[in-house]
Design a protein that fits this description.
42 residues; 0% strand; rod-shaped
């Protein structure tokens, strides 16, 4: 890789969108665990 090559970074909007999707998936996974525990204790 040459020193004059541009950095291989996605634009800020794309990185922000990826972070938001990661958070959404994390919240969904936690909600599923809580739902399973709630249904299992009945």
């Amino acid at each position: 890789m040459l020193w004059s090559d541009p950095e291989n970074k996605p634009p800020k909007e794309l990185r922000d969108a990826q972070d938001m999707m990661r958070r959404v998936w994390l919240v969904l996974a936690l909600a599923m665990v809580v739902a399973m525990l709630a249904l299992g204790t009945r």
